[in-house]
Write a structure and sequence with these properties.
single chain; about 140 residues; mainly alpha; about 60% helix; about 0% strand
Amino acid sequence: MAQTKKKRRRKHRGTQGGRIDTRPARGRARSRGEAQNRARSRTNQKKGKGGAKTPQPASWSNALKKGGIAAVLFAGILALMGQNPIQIIVVGVAMLGFYVPLAFMMDGFFFRRFVRKEAEKRQERETRRTGGAQQPEG
């Protein structure tokens, strides 16, 4: 017996409601420039969503918070080990005195490193933009 239904030859792009999708297919980019632009837009979207935080300048309030968290955790570990409560308080205060300046110095170090790297990137972009021509100093 002969087949009654012919297989469709082309993909139907319409929806059940009758709307036809006019957007181009989301497959491969047609040209190298289009592919580069698409990749750039993807990386820009990623940076905005959950990229690395930019370091803030060092502040004593942030250092006190970080040092306080570290001292409380350390004191909690000592409490779990069954140490004397007076010893725990003394060691906690000593840890606070140690961690607060350390946190302040680390924040300052990371911020200075970030600023230096950003300046290098900016200089690199400027050099690339001007074609490597040196700017006259003075």
